[in-house]
Fold:
Amino acid sequence: MSDFYNVGSKIVKRKHTSLRFVDSKTTIMKTGTRLFMQIKNSCTFYFFLFSLSLSAQSLKSYERAGDNAFEQKDYAAAVQHYKVVVQRENNNFDVWWKYGESARLYAAYPEAEKAYRKIELSNKGRAEFPLVSFRLGEIKKSLGDYPAAVAYFEKFLNKQPAAEPTFQEKARQELDDCRQ
Structure:
């Protein structure tokens, strides 16, 4: 069998698909293995992209489930759904806020504090959620940390002078309660 053959007017060298010995241990490799690996890698890549899209869809589903649970006042379920999302999307402050609100209303104060602190430590989070200091004050008061609660309520009143009057009034009342 010849290593060369004619294709139209060109002479082409035959690519071997037969087995060849690579080293003294008689390891056998097929030349077609490279093609198989390319196909395998392509399939793996497309599967990865597909799973990412499913993951993103799954996170949206968890967030929607949390929203539905929150609307039904099932705060425990809402906390669980939002927790899945914030574990995977660490910088989604909208979901962190929902997580904190659900945890606060469920009286899971350490979880609520964690969520609100995440927001407070971010410039973007503080800008989007001006009530974060107020909520942290409420959480600290509920946990019995009155000096920290006072600091957060004062911070809220100083940093948010244009906040709704009901929140300002409530913050002043909470300050008085914490100082007694």
Observations:
- Helices lie at 32-71, 75-88, 93-105, 109-120, 123-128, 132-142, 146-159, 165-179.
- The CA atoms of residues 157 and 168 lie 7 Å apart.
